[in-house]
Please model this.
Amino acid sequence: MVSIIIPTYNSERHIRQCLDSILAQSYSDLELICLDDGSTDGTLEILKGYASKDSRVIVIVRRENLGISSARNAALSVAHGEWLMFVDSDDWISPDTCERAIAIAHRHNADTVAWCYTREFASQSLPKVFEPSERVWEGDEVHALHRRMFGPYREELSRPDLLDAWGTIWGKLYSRRLVMEDPPVTFVDTRVVGTAEDVVFNIDYFFKSRKVVYVPKPWYHYRKDMGSYSNRHRNDLCAKWDRLYDVMEQRIATQQLGKDVEEALQNRIALGVLGLGIIAMRSGGAWKEKYHSLHGLLRRDRQHQALQQLDLHHFAPHWRLFYYSAKHRLTPLFMAMQTAIGRIINKDNKIEN
Model:
């Protein structure tokens, strides 16, 4: 059985497409654990309607909104399947995803299967393929994938657009045994770390994993919505990411990881100025305020120290210039490049390499 966990919060607009894609899977031995996290729209009524028609749909109701991490943790505690999958309530999966993922896991005797995704825009669908060929990590080789969760290392810096592509919670088939094995793998609170709670989950999970198979199949359909929570400006994101980096540093210590992982995390911190800069540029303030925000970002000790050790020669020319401006605190150039990147994103909602 596959337990598919779907946290919901005010998801009435897209939840039907999500649920329909799962209930129509060619592999039918499923349970859908939908935890509604205090929705104030019609989401709960929709979930109850599906549950009344299909016994595989399990609805858990919370009156108070406690966040996506808490919702996923609560759903994990009642899952029964041998395998776990996570799907966000505004996304969907291809019809044979479960069947093919389980077949791959059995064929390779793997504890984890990963695949890529399709970015679903309003007017087009764009696959995001991490690597072009199937790949298997086994035994000590899993360390390279585990390290990738902390950040890119050496030649991996050539694809800054893949910073967290490997670290998503969706697009994977997990062994529930490994998740529940002591110490159990759980989600850190996004109210504390801001984002990347799935990356931390994967750091803990892949520390246990012994065999992972990746297939270049975009079976997961990720809806790109510029109005979503993760895309809105948040003034406290720098502080929350500091706590995220603290959590990652703690994992390096407790898991007794090496210098390569420390370097990967420093690269993550350096590359993170892109996301922080984009959010600052999307704020409603005047240009002078945005300039001072970017100026302050480049003078934060944590980001500056990480940028100083960032090896620029792995980057394509445009990325090299961007991170050169950040590394040397050239705020006018950094702002100009942030503006250009923002226009690209606003035009077609993507950054292409």
